[in-house]
Amino acid sequence: MFRSSDHDPLSAAIAPPSNETPAARTARLRAEAEARRVSEEIDEQLKAERAARRRQRPCVKVLLLGQSESGKSTTLKNFQMQYARETWLEERSSWRAIIQLNLIRSIVTVLDLLGDALVGPALDSPSALSMPLTEKHRLLRLRLAPLRGVQQDLQRRLGAAAIEESYNPGPGGVLPRPSSEFAVRSHDGWRSALERFRARPQEAQESARAADARVRKAAEVTEVVVGCAEDMKALWEDHAVREMLRRKKIRMEEEPGFFLNDIERIATRDYEPSDNDVIRARLRTLGVQEYSFWVEQTGHEWLMYDVGGTRSSRAHWYPYFDDMEAIIFLAPISSFDERLREDRRVNRLEDTYMLWQTLCSLQMLSKTQIILFLNKCDLLEQKLRAGVRVRTHVPSFGNRSNDVDTVKKYFQSHFKEIAKQHSPEPRRFYVHLTSVIDTRSTAATLRTVEDGILRASLRRADLL
Ligand SMILES: Nc1nc2c(ncn2[C@@H]2O[C@H](COP(=O)(O)OP(=O)(O)OP(=O)(O)O)[C@@H](O)[C@H]2O)c(=O)[nH]1
Ligand SMILES: [Mg+2]
């Protein structure tokens, strides 16, 4: 099995901050040791399961990699929609709570910003809003306050995956890491989170009373959300609030799990998530999750591995490298002007380049097909239309034209060049420009990808 070394860039990418205090280091090492123990136990269990399955029938294994929020789980959802329709439909309504949480989280973000602005510059200051915040905004804030309690409650019940990882360098350079960061989970990640929100009893042994309590709790959450619907809408549609967001350069529409334009539809008692809602919902992945699909047309079983992409999760990728038919690497190219949520000092595109270089240069992956998805093209287009200039954030872009085609081509050639320079053996460059929230075009991409992977797999089997 592959082990990381001190020199490899992936280790560098997950290295602790240089100004870490002794106390923070002790706590981190202890938490990491525990995470490693749990993770190794899960690896062993998965290995045994995989070996047993392989003995029974052939399967094609694909690993999804990329930084956090790059679209790995969303790609997996597309596969699930296409090849495991029954499970997809069974799980779909359980996403309701996650979508409610996504919506509430956006509202709470706006409320926090509003809170700051209400105690902000005086009306006559140059940075004051042209449309002043008034008593109406204070009241909206007050009336929407119960959503904070609901957010906490949902997050508690959904578990660590529902909490976005983040830390800001605190005083003295201590970077507090939330304990959730080390919550390495079993391989059924989001499934276990969703299970807690199923309407029907989950297991035979679940008592009717426990099932009732779960259903009652879900109804209580819905009642609060429905009760706040009008105020949420008023807040999101308010001109002064929009101006405040614009001034702070916050584009809520680009945030993961954005549902503020769907309040009327979602904040109702009989809301049922659509396919598209589930695709757009955000629940982060912890540890490694394994999914299996049976592809009728070719008679193969596919095993897909979805991993957590935050820096602290990346150490858990290694054990999966030596056993894959292909890797799909997600690079969100709209992120050229963003910073990592878990470390605001790092530019997201730089982080993606670094990960890509690492994967390309690993000797053990030299024969593995790596397929690059330059993802979030829709957001890239949106950003460029809004006037964001690539050159400001990527100086090497130089004086090229800031139009979508030029930008896409530029990024694509940069990834290609990295692959060429750093692969230990020549490798073919497989690339797709994607917006994986667009299920129709993604279905076509996935068919091409699937075909390519299968061919390579058969070729390999022939050679063996
Ligand atoms: N607009 C847009 N949103 C996307 C696209 N791909 C993913 N998203 C959204 O981005 C958010 C994050 O996507 P995920 O698939 O959860 O990201 P991930 O790579 O699995 O992240 P981790 O689990 O944290 O490693 C979700 O809300 C998705 O709906 C895309 O191409 N366009
Ligand atoms: Mg994920």
Automatic annotation (TrEMBL):
<dbReference type="GO" id="GO:0007188">
    <property type="term" value="P:adenylate cyclase-modulating G protein-coupled receptor signaling pathway"/>
</dbReference>
<feature type="region of interest" description="Disordered">
    <location>
        <begin position="1"/>
        <end position="28"/>
    </location>
</feature>
<dbReference type="GO" id="GO:0005525">
    <property type="term" value="F:GTP binding"/>
</dbReference>
<dbReference type="GO" id="GO:0005737">
    <property type="term" value="C:cytoplasm"/>
</dbReference>
<dbReference type="GO" id="GO:0005834">
    <property type="term" value="C:heterotrimeric G-protein complex"/>
</dbReference>
<feature type="binding site">
    <location>
        <position position="285"/>
    </location>
    <ligand>
        <name>Mg(2+)</name>
    </ligand>
</feature>
<keyword id="KW-0342">GTP-binding</keyword>
<keyword id="KW-0479">Metal-binding</keyword>
<keyword id="KW-0807">Transducer</keyword>
<protein>
    <submittedName>
        <fullName>Guanine nucleotide binding protein, alpha subunit</fullName>
    </submittedName>
</protein>
<dbReference type="InterPro" id="IPR027417">
    <property type="entry name" value="P-loop_NTPase"/>
</dbReference>
<dbReference type="InterPro" id="IPR011025">
    <property type="entry name" value="GproteinA_insert"/>
</dbReference>
<dbReference type="GO" id="GO:0001664">
    <property type="term" value="F:G protein-coupled receptor binding"/>
</dbReference>
<dbReference type="InterPro" id="IPR001019">
    <property type="entry name" value="Gprotein_alpha_su"/>
</dbReference>
<keyword id="KW-0460">Magnesium</keyword>
<keyword id="KW-0547">Nucleotide-binding</keyword>
<dbReference type="Pfam" id="PF00503">
    <property type="entry name" value="G-alpha"/>
</dbReference>
<dbReference type="GO" id="GO:0046872">
    <property type="term" value="F:metal ion binding"/>
</dbReference>
<feature type="binding site">
    <location>
        <begin position="375"/>
        <end position="378"/>
    </location>
    <ligand>
        <name>GTP</name>
    </ligand>
</feature>
<dbReference type="GO" id="GO:0031683">
    <property type="term" value="F:G-protein beta/gamma-subunit complex binding"/>
</dbReference>
<dbReference type="GO" id="GO:0003924">
    <property type="term" value="F:GTPase activity"/>
</dbReference>
